[in-house]
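Note to self: user wants both folds in one dump. Writing first protein now.
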Amino acid sequence: MRSKNSAMGVKDYMLRYARDLADSGRYADWRAIEALLRLRYGEEQSDRLLNDASVRGELDRRCQHPAHAGNNIEQIRR
C-alpha cells in the first residue's frame, strides 16, 4: 500500500482533491483551484502537478462541466 507521503501517493491525493474541487462547480478554471492546492500541498508539489498541460486541461473541462454542481465544499475537504 502506498504511503500518503510517497511522491506518487501525494500526486494521487492532489489530483483527486483537484478533480473533486473542479467537479464541485464552484471554480472557473484550474487557476482558481491552484491556490487551494498550494495551501494544502505546498507550492513545489502544486507546481509539479499543474505543470502538466493535460492536467490543467482536464481540470478546466471539469470546471466547465461539473459532475456534481452544487456540492457543499465542506464535503470535499474531508
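First done. Writing the second protein, which came from a different request thread.
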Amino acid sequence: MSSTLRVLFFHGLGSSINGRKSLYLAKHFPNSYTPHLKPYYLLPLAFWRAIIAIYHFKPDIIVGTSFGGFILMLLLQRQVWNGNTILLAPATGLLFKKRLWLPKDHRKNIVIVAGRNDKTVPLEGLTELQQSSRDNIRFLVVEDDHRLNKSMIEQDQLRNLINANSQPPMTTNKINNYFDCIKLWLSCMFCLVVSFIREPFTLYHTIKRLRKIRREIIETH
C-alpha cells in the first residue's frame, strides 16, 4: 500500500521541505509531496500553496504538523479538503482559540496525535477538540514532545497511522480548476481576517509564551 499512496505533508514552523518528517515520508511513501510553506509571516501565500498542492497532487491523505496542522484544520473547516487526515500537534488553538473545531459532517478518518510532554501546543486544548468532535475522530496521546519525532519517526508510528487511515475516497474533490482554487483561497482569507478581528491579542500572547519556552530550553542546555 505504501508504494501507491499519495501522501501530502504540511510541515511545521521549525521545519521545511527537507525536514525530518518530510524525508521520512519520502523514504516510506514514494508518492509523497511536501509543498514549501515558508515564509510563515506571509500566511496568504502559505494557504495558496497548500490549496494548489491539493489541486495538483490529488492526495489520498494529508498529514499536517504544528503550523501545518493549523493550515490543514482551516482547510477542513472551509471544506477545501474533506479526505483522510492526520493532525500532529496542530497549532490551531494556539493561534486562534475559537478556531479549535472540526466539521461535524466530516465523513473521513481524522487522527489527532498529541504529545504528553508537549510544551508548545497544550494537551488540554487538543483534548477539548477531540471531546467536541464526532466519533470519527481518533485521538492518540503519545509519550513525546511537540516535534513527535521519537514516536512518529523513530518508533515508526507515522507510517502505520497513514496505512491504517487511508481509506478510499467517499466524496469527490471540490477543486476542479484554478477558479475553484481562487474561490476557496478567498474563503480562507476571509476566515483569517475574521479570526484576527475576534482574537486580536491571542497571537500576541502566544508569541510571548513561545519566546519564554525557547529561553527556558536554551537555559537548560
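Dump finished. Worth passing along: The two ends are 42 Å apart (CA to CA).
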